[in-house]
């Protein structure tokens, strides 16, 4: 089990009941990975099934969403395989803005 802070920025909070910051507990045996966190977000936090495609594409975070783990790009941390620890901060920021 791991407790992390998850931030949805750049308009993503719209699909998470307009709440930007969430304290999330992923109740799974260690190690808990970012992939586990993503599964948890999709299965328990996105209320409208139509909103899943805003966040996920091809079983990963949708292109155009910057994903940071403790302020480091998740690509440098192993993406979905990155192991999370209590107190980590995972930020998802949409870089796609309407105009």
From TrEMBL:
Pfam hit, one: Urm1
Post-translational modification: C-terminal thiocarboxylation occurs in 2 steps, it is first acyl-adenylated (-COAMP) via the hesA/moeB/thiF part of UBA4, then thiocarboxylated (-COSH) via the rhodanese domain of UBA4.
Keywords: Cytoplasm, Isopeptide bond, Nucleus, tRNA processing, Ubl conjugation pathway
InterPro entries in alphabetical order: Beta-grasp_dom_sf (IPR012675), Mopterin_synth/thiamin_S_b (IPR016155), Urm1 (IPR015221)
SUPFAM superfamilies the UniProt entry points to: MoaD/ThiS (SSF54285)
Pathway: tRNA modification; 5-methoxycarbonylmethyl-2-thiouridine-tRNA biosynthesis
UniProt keyword Magnesium present: no
Subcellular localization(s) per the UniProt record: Cytoplasm; Nucleus
Keyword Nucleus found: yes
CDD domains referenced in this protein's UniProt entry, alphabetically: Ubl_Urm1
Residue list for modification 1-thioglycine: 99
Gene3D superfamilies (alphabetical): 3.10.20.30
Annotated crosslink Glycyl lysine isopeptide (Gly-Lys) (interchain with K-? in acceptor proteins) location: 99
Its job: Acts as a sulfur carrier required for 2-thiolation of mcm(5)S(2)U at tRNA wobble positions of cytosolic tRNA(Lys), tRNA(Glu) and tRNA(Gln). Serves as sulfur donor in tRNA 2-thiolation reaction by being thiocarboxylated (-COSH) at its C-terminus by the MOCS3 homolog UBA4. The sulfur is then transferred to tRNA to form 2-thiolation of mcm(5)S(2)U. Prior mcm(5) tRNA modification by the elongator complex is required for 2-thiolation. Also acts as a ubiquitin-like protein (UBL) that is covalently conjugated via an isopeptide bond to lysine residues of target proteins such as AHP1.
Assembly notes: Homodimer; homodimerization may provide an autoprotection to the highly active C-terminal residue before attacking its substrates. Interacts with NCS2 and NCS6. Forms a conjugate with the target protein AHP1.
Family indicated by similarity: Belongs to the URM1 family.
Protein name from the UniProt record: Ubiquitin-related modifier 1
């Amino acid at each position: 089990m791991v407790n992390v802070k998850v931030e949805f920025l750049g308009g993503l909070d719209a699909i998470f009941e307009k709440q930007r910051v969430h304290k999330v507990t992923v109740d799974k045996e260690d190690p808990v990975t970012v992939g586990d966190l993503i599964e948890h977000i999709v299965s328990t936090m996105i209320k409208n099934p139509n909103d899943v495609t805003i966040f996920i594409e091809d079983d990963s975070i949708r292109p155009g969403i910057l994903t940071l783990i403790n302020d480091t790009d998740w690509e440098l941390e192993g993406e979905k395989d990155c192991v999370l620890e209590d107190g980590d901060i995972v930020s998802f920021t949409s870089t796609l803005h309407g105009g």
